[in-house]
Structure formats: structure tokens, C-alpha cells
Design a protein that fits this description.
Blueprint: H1 2-27, E1 29-31, E2 38-40, E3 48-52, H2 56-59, H3 62-74, E4 79-85, H4 116-129, E5 133-139, H5 149-163, E6 169-177, H6 183-196, E7 202-206, E8 210-211, H7 213-216, E9 225-228, H8 255-259, E10 270-272, H9 294-306, E11 311-314, H10 317-320, H11 337-340, H12 349-357, E12 365-366, E13 382-386, E14 390-395, E15 401-404, E16 412-418, E17 425-432, E18 435-438, E19 451-457, H13 470-473
Helix pairs in contact: 3-4, 5-6
Length: about 475
């Protein structure tokens, strides 16, 4: 009888491990075979739709975390980028400390106390419940001056040991800093994590107007490249340091895709991890400057993705710092984070995700040859992408465009105009396989003038011709 009971216990233990392993497999991400995309372990598409909730671990309590992540799931987000250590010491809303100058974080894991790290556990688990990955920025770049290689190794080992078995983790090394500042410490941190945790993806979050590819493209720990296109408008040179791009190209975030290539070739998937935020002053530092609006954050998103990124991270001035009455705000933020959740750009990113997942995913490439004639510059620039039998062109200004429909397979093409502000689809009809002129319906340079032209081989049924909205087409876009 004792043997039978022990066998039963063993059977239950094995069943638990099997179920847990299967659940983790559902979360497992990897780089696609063509190095362009991030996909699930089984090869199914993963479109990174991120949000910069940098100060969530520090400023939200449990109830607020639950509310916020529930709203994020409804808005289509599947990645939250957060900061951990952004000061010495760092505290959360409960007054619990994460660290000190030694970076020996184990001493702040206190039995019988809901400590800083317990709260982070809760955030990660609550995110998993909502189908969301947590991209952990381990230590913000401003704190690199307090670190050395030994401290970086200690921190990396602690984080990896604690979170290696959480399924929904992505590691961010760096934190708004150039990779040539503290390079040895960043390498030590990344390698300490990787020695213990080989399952979760890793990248480097760089300074504005730079890309991780400039410093870490050859690192064994780097799974994908991240750039930060920053918060400057065209011709804006005031602010924080040296410029690495030509004047009057500040808003052209699509340029960073090319900057992330090595000798013109793609070596890793690429993403814009921090573009201009909704409701933040243009250039950050002059609070009387115009603020970036929903149309601007849409432009950054579509330019990046159509330019070759595997996903996109959105940001909002109030959400990224989780501002509320009584807290000192940065960058002129005024509205509470819970009100910012209702802003239009925050709720329009899901249409991009649904559009990209409605079509064959990993075959897609950026291809400006789809555009006949002048592709335009600045706000008039057309940005084109295509698969084997479909093509799409993002048109921010709403200008007339000439599109070569013969660039993809199919003797005839079904053509739609897609509205990024509400996800609506307007079927234009069936077109012959030749260069054709299209005039979008939004006017010229209005706040909601931007449109996407979609052309698909008429023999394919990726998008039904009677579909009124992209959310009807891709019901799995919440994943």
C-alpha cells in the first residue's frame, strides 16, 4: 500500500511538471529562421506590441497593477517594458527597498514581509494571467556609474535565479544609455543572466537616436536589436547630447532599421523600443512645445514596422512614469495614468497588430520598389512592405500614390484602404496587375489623414472583401 501511495505521489509530481512544461512551451519565444522575426517555439507568429510602463514596479499597488494589466490586454498589448533599479536605493509604493550600493539584492528578500521582489513576482504573474510578457530593464543606464563588473555579475545571477522559471520574461540590458558607456558591466550583467537562464530572449535598450547594433551586434547574448528613435522633431537639435543622424531626419525612425544592419545584411530581428510618446512635448525639455499626438505615434509605429521591424513599442508620457496627483511629474505630464489609458493613440496600436497578423508573417520584407516614382520625404514619405502575394503601403500625409501591383504574385489584386485610427477597411475592388494610382480618402495632412493601401492576390482570402474592420479578420490579435 505504501508503494502504491508513493507511486501515486510520483505520478502527480510528474503530471505537474509536464503541465508546467507545456505551459512554459506556450510562452517560449525564439528568433525565426530568417532572422527577421520573433516567433513562438512552434514557429507561429509573435507580433511584439509593447508599452513603456517603466515605473509600474515602483508606483502601482497590487490593485492598480491588476487594473492596468487588464486594460492593457484589452488594448492588445502583449509586452510591458519596466525598470527595476533606477536609483540607489530603489523603493516601491509599499516603501520596500530593492537594493543598496552593493547590489546584493538577496538581503532585501525578507521572510514574512511582502517585499519589493515579492511585488515584482506579483506583477509578472499578473501579466502572465493577461497573456503579457514583462521586458525587465535590470538596472537603468543612469546607475551604471555605481556598478562594476563584480556588482553586475551579482545582480545578473540574482535576477536569473529568481526569474528563470517565470515563462513570460524578456531581458533588457542597458537603459537609455549608449552601449559604449559601461560596456564591460553591461556584458557582465548579460552573461551572468545567460549562464543561468538560456530560455528567455535578451536585448540592449540604448540611448535616443542610437541602436544596440552599434555596440553589441556580435555578442552571443544578444537575440534581437533594439533602437530608440527618440523624441525630437525635424530640425530639433536642443536637448541631451550628441547627434548621430543627419539634420532634418529626426523623426525618420525607419532609418534606424538600416543602421541596425551589418554590411547591409540583417543579422538579428529589429524593433523600435522607444519612439516619441503620446502627449509628451516635442524634444522633451520645453513644456510649452507642441505635444506628440495620436497621428504621430501611429506614424512612428507604421514607419517602423513597414520599414522592417518585427513589432513596435508605444509609449505615453503619463503611463511611462505612472503619474498621479501628488507625484512630481517629468516632461510636463499632467493627466493621471488611468486617464491616459483612454487616449486615442494608446488604443489604436491594436489595429496595427491585427493587420500584421492577418497576413503571412515571417515572409514579409520592406520593399520600397513597390512605389512607382517618388517615394517622398519627411511627412510625405510612403513606406512599403510586402509578402509573396500581398503588399501594403503606409501613407501618412494622404497624398496621391502610384503603386506597382505587379511586385507580388497574382494576376489580379483585391485592394483595400485601411484606416489606422479605427481599423476600418474600405474595399476598392479588383485591379489589374499594373502600376495604378490611388488617392486616399482622408484629405491631405489632416490629423487622421494617414491610410494603408493593401493589395492581395485575388486568389487569396487573407482578408474577406466584405470585412468592415481588421478586428473582424484577426480575432487572435489579442495574443
Amino acid at each position: 500500500m505504501k508503494t502504491t501511495f508513493r507511486q501515486l505521489l510520483l505520478w502527480f509530481a510528474m503530471l505537474f511538471v509536464t503541465v508546467a512544461s507545456a505551459q512554459n512551451d506556450q510562452w517560449q519565444l525564439k528568433v525565426s529562421d530568417n532572422n527577421r522575426y520573433i516567433v513562438h517555439a512552434d514557429g507561429s507568429p509573435f507580433f511584439w506590441l509593447g508599452n513603456t510602463s517603466w515605473l509600474m514596479p515602483h508606483r502601482l499597488n497590487r490593485e492598480e497593477v491588476h487594473y492596468y494589466l487588464t486594460r492593457e490586454k484589452a488594448a492588445g498589448y502583449n509586452v510591458e517594458q519596466i525598470q527595476l533599479i533606477n536609483a540607489i536605493p530603489t523603493f516601491n509604493i509599499y516603501g520596500q527597498q530593492a537594493n543598496d550600493e552593493t547590489f546584493e539584492c538577496e538581503k532585501f528578500c525578507i521572510d514574512g514581509v511582502y517585499d519589493f521582489w515579492d511585488h515584482l513576482d506579483y506583477i509578472i504573474n499578473e501579466a502572465a494571467h493577461n497573456g503579457i510578457y514583462i521586458a525587465i530593464d535590470c538596472v537603468w543606464g543612469s546607475q551604471i556609474k555605481a556598478m562594476d563588473v563584480d556588482k553586475a555579475r551579482k545582480l545578473g545571477a540574482f535576477l536569473a535565479n529568481r526569474y528563470k522559471d517565470f515563462p513570460n520574461i524578456i531581458w533588457l540590458i542597458g537603459g537609455d544609455i549608449r552601449g559604449d558607456k559601461g560596456t564591460e558591466s553591461w556584458d557582465a550583467l548579460a552573461r551572468a543572466i545567460r549562464e543561468i537562464d538560456s530560455k528567455h530572449l535578451m536585448t540592449f535598450h540604448p540611448r535616443g537616436r542610437t541602436t544596440s547594433a552599434w555596440w553589441f551586434n556580435d555578442r552571443e547574448w544578444l537575440d534581437f536589436n533594439m533602437f530608440q528613435s527618440g523624441h525630437r522633431r525635424y530640425g530639433q537639435r536642443n536637448g541631451d547630447g550628441d547627434y548621430t543622424i543627419a539634420e532634418n531626419t529626426e523623426e525618420d525612425n525607419w532609418r534606424y532599421v538600416g543602421m541596425s544592419l551589418k554590411d547591409g545584411k540583417l543579422t538579428h530581428p529589429i524593433i523600435d523600443g522607444e519612439p516619441s510618446y503620446e502627449d509628451i512635448p516635442q524634444g522633451l525639455h520645453d513644456f510649452s512645445a507642441p505635444r506628440w499626438q495620436a497621428c504621430d505615434v501611429r506614424r512612428y509605429a507604421y514607419w517602423a514596422v513597414f520599414g522592417g521591424c518585427f513589432g513596435h513599442t508605444y509609449g505615453h508620457n503619463s503611463i511611462m512614469q505612472m503619474i498621479r496627483p501628488g507625484l512630481l511629474a517629468s516632461f510636463g505630464a499632467e493627466k493621471p495614468w488611468w486617464d491616459a489609458l483612454n487616449d486615442p493613440g494608446q488604443n489604436q496600436m491594436k489595429y496595427l497588430k491585427a493587420l500584421m497578423l492577418a497576413l503571412p508573417f515571417t515572409e514579409r520584407v520592406a520593399d520600397q520598389s513597390v512605389i512607382s516614382g517618388n517615394e517622398g520625404e519627411r511627412y510625405d514619405r510612403l513606406c512599403a512592405t510586402r509578402g509573396n502575394d500581398y503588399l501594403m503601403v503606409y501613407n501618412y500625409s494622404g497624398r496621391t500614390m502610384d503603386i506597382d501591383l505587379s511586385k507580388v504574385k497574382g494576376k489580379q489584386k483585391n485592394v483595400w484602404i485601411f484606416n489606422p485610427s479605427d481599423g476600418s477597411l474600405n474595399y476598392l475592388g479588383k485591379y489589374e496587375n499594373k502600376t495604378t494610382q490611388f488617392a486616399p480618402d482622408g484629405g491631405y495632412l489632416n490629423a487622421n489623414a494617414d491610410r494603408v493601401l493593401i493589395a492581395i492576390d485575388a486568389q487569396k482570402d487573407y482578408i474577406p472583401t466584405n470585412a468592415a474592420n481588421i478586428m473582424e479578420v484577426n480575432k487572435n490579435s489579442s495574443k
